[in-house]
Amino acid sequence: MNYQELTNVEKAVYLLKGDAFLCKQTKNKIAQLLKIENINISQFNEENFEALSVVNACNQFSFFEENRMVVVQDLQKELNSESKKILENYCKNPNLTCTLVLIDTISSNCFDFIKQVELVECKANETFLINYIKEQFEKNKKEISQSLCKKILENCLSNLNRINLEIKKICDYLQAETIVSEQVVDLLVFKDIELKVFDLTTALGYKNKDKALKLVHSMLELGEPPIKIISLIAGQFRRMFFAKLNKGSNAELAKVLGCKEFAIIKAKEQAIKFSASELKKIENMCMEVDFNIKNGDMSMENSLYYLIFNIINAS
């Protein structure tokens, strides 16, 4: 189900997947529907997670017969077989006085092996998010156009946590002023580096060397490590290659590649400028650059420029 469809809580185990902000809101909604206070909520994450500790927390006795909630989130790697077995066995016969909420906001898919869960998709489409941005500004007595709402959305890569921070930043900057202008948005809402890499791969597709180099210079000047830029370029060209070959939906491909649908949409747009063989050749270039860096044959910055020039010159 979509998070907006959640109106009552009938299951003992829920899996929330999607945007971090919406997952948090949905978790809070479950607690509110069950009237669970914070004192009766146990939290587990990457640092303190142990499957047996989670199950013990779920089975913990309540003296006052109150409902309890156990939350597990931000696990970044696949669970081992023992942990999977412990969680799977619990979910087959859960404690009905406790609601277990599993949260996956980083597309790790580490809970997908559990079948006895109620899956809640915490994702919002572009129309909803643009309207959300506009409503938040209106609550702060600010006026903003639909086009600028979309610009904020794109610059933040549809990440609601960042969108909320940028809205607050703009409102604080404007103070008593009521109109949100394009100049203010350009001044305050910086493009996420992943979005800059989208711009870079577009420039590479058009063989626009000057623009590509300008974008690389700007990212380096902002302190982005060359190896991170190389990794993002490699990841985008990999998505472009799969987008070129895959005929499935954006959502299906995003799930397989562990990225957002927005990245797949951009990959499909950019893949038009390349043939499948060219994309495969560039993917091999990225692997070669990675090998050279690990072997110490080339510095990271030189490797970045080597990759850029070779992609531009690839036929």
What does this structure look like?
The protein has 315 residues and is α/β, with parallel strands linked by helices. The protein has helices at residues 20-34, 51-58, 81-92, 126-139, 146-155, 160-174, 182-188, 193-205, 209-221, 226-245, 250-257, 261-271, 276-294, 300-313, and strands at residues 13-18, 41-44, 68-73, 98-104, 118-122. It has a five-stranded parallel β-sheet, with helices on both faces. α8 runs parallel beside α12 and α11 (250-257) packs across α12. The N and C termini lie far apart (46 Å). 29% of the residues are buried.
Write the layout of secondary structure elements.
Elements: E1 13-18, H1 20-34, E2 41-44, H2 51-58, E3 68-73, H3 81-92, E4 98-104, E5 118-122, H4 126-139, H5 146-155, H6 160-174, H7 182-188, H8 193-205, H9 209-221, H10 226-245, H11 250-257, H12 261-271, H13 276-294, H14 300-313
Parallel strand pairs: 1-4, 1-5, 2-3, 3-4
Proportion of beta-strand residues:
5-15%
Mean pLDDT: 87
Instruction: List low-pLDDT spans.
Output: none
In terms of structural class, how would the helical and strand content be classed?
Answer: alpha/beta
DSSP summary, beta strand count: 5
Computed CA radius of gyration, to the nearest angstrom: 23 Å
Following the backbone from N to C, one meets helices and strands in this order, namely EHEHEHEEHHHHHHHHHHH
What fraction, in percent, of the residue positions are helical? Answer: 55-70%
Q: How far apart lie the N and C ends?
A: 46 Å
Outline type: globular
